[in-house]
Amino acid sequence: MKAARFHEHGGPGVLRYEDAPDPEPHPCRAIIRVRACALNHLDLWQRRGLERVRIPLPHVSGSDVAGEVVDGGGAFDPGTRVLLQPGLSCGRCEKCLAGCDNECLAYDVLGYMSDGGHAELVSVPTDNVVPIPDHIDFIAAAAFPLTFLTAWHMLLTRASLQAGDVVLVIAGGSGVGQAAIQIAKLHGARVFATSGPGKMEQARAIGAEDVFDHYAGDFSRRVRAATGNRGADIVIEHVGEATWERSVRSLARCGRLVTCGATTGPRGSVDLAHLFARQLSLLGSYMGRKSELLEAAALFFDGRLTPVVDEVLPLSEVRVAHGRLESGRQFGKIVLTP
Ligand SMILES: [Zn+2]
After folding, report:
1. Pairing state between β 108-109 and 87-88
2. How far is the CA of 53 from the centre of ligand 1 (A)?
3. Ligand 1 midpoint to CA 98 (Å)
4. Which pLDDT value is given to residue 182?
5. 120: nearest Cα among 68, 187, 79
6. How far is CA 273 from CA 219, 254, 309, in A?
7. Residues by chain with Cβ below 5 Å of ion ligand 1
8. Which end of the chain has less Cβ packing within 10 Å, N or C?
9. What does DSSP assign to residue 304?
10. Backbone angles phi, psi at 179, to 5 degrees
11. Which residues does 333 contact at the CB level (< 8 Å), separation at least 6?
12. Which residues of the chain are under the pLDDT cut of 70?
């Protein structure tokens, strides 16, 4: 098969579109012909290399896959149209059996420590295969799983979103951002977002009441001004150093900040007096539960959540795709087609 692989860590130039061995059939695993695979920041981190993480080389990234079953491992008919749940867990431990599979000690993400979907074929446990209805195209299906799963877990499970909450989504044009705006809006929140100047209209179009330029000025003041000095009950963070302090300052009394990433750097400080006196909660979040993916997917399939696709490129253009995500110019997901 053809695959986008890297044999060493570095810039987009280390990516090679080349021949790679087909995945071998295996009990309890399915082989999927990839029709579309979206990019995530996780793919960039893997390519650049991470301290304390040894990614097997050569490596195929790609966590967000849609395609057709080639070998269903006894569980699915060949030709079934599917998307893949990107979280891999043992299925046997206490956390898995309690439905908290993203807390499994063996938790991994498709395309992280094992080969992913930036290829013509991918092998996954049959538990990760989710059939899709005929009216859902492969591009949209690939743009859906990781970011909607992540945003769902952040808003509903970690931050306990209630109707009427004020939600501030940092970088509303990112993959997680566009998912969070839509999920929050659908659950009855008042949604605000930050973005660069070129993306504000698009963020409004998917449900943000107002959008503040996070490159210019203090968006925490803008949120307060828009909410009668209350601030945001929930802040969705994933940018890190560049926005952290303003994000914390945006919180209302008893507000919850949830973070799932730090694309501009991992260091952030907190004024402890502000933290306790205002009764704030700072929460971490990583991926989400398979049950949450299925709940979100039902809303995707009936048209109430719609992944925003920025650009579709052939897999052979994987270097260009990484460059575009790295530049931060995109609104929504970049999708590759083998
Ligand atoms: Zn487990």
Report:
1. antiparallel
2. 20
3. 9
4. 98
5. 68
6. 21, 14, 42
7. 89-90, 93, 96, 104
8. N
9. S
10. -70, -45
11. 38, 39, 64, 142, 143, 147, 175, 307, 308, 309, 310
12. none
φ, ψ at 108 (rounded to 5°)? -145, 165
- 200 and 225 Cβ atoms separated by less than 8 Å: no
Å from CA of 100 to ligand 1 middle: 8
Closest to 266 (Cα-Cα) out of 240, 242, 300, 233: 240
Q: How far is the CA of 94 from the centre of ligand 1 (A)?
A: 7
For residue 314, what are the β-bridge partners?
337
Helical residues (DSSP H) of 227-328, grouped into ranges: 244-249, 272-277, 290-301, 318-327
The pLDDT of residue 253: 98
Query: Quick one: residue 327, left, alpha or beta (phi over 0 = left, psi -120 to 50 = alpha)?
Result: alpha
Provide the sign of the torsion angle of the four alpha carbons 102, 153, 171, 238, taken in this order. Answer: negative
In DSSP terms, 67 is beta-bridged to 34, 82
What is d(CA 277, CA 32) in angstroms, rounded to the nearest whole number?
Answer: 52
Instruction: Say how many Å lie between the CA of residue 152 and the centre of ligand 1.
Output: 21
What are 237-270's pLDDT values in tens digits? Answer: 999 999 999 999 999 999 999 999 999 999 999 9
* Distance (Å, whole) CA 216 – CA 37: 34
pLDDT of residue 52: 87
Ligand 1 midpoint to CA 57 (Å) = 25
Give first-to-last CA distance, the chain, whole Å.
10
Amino acid at 243: T
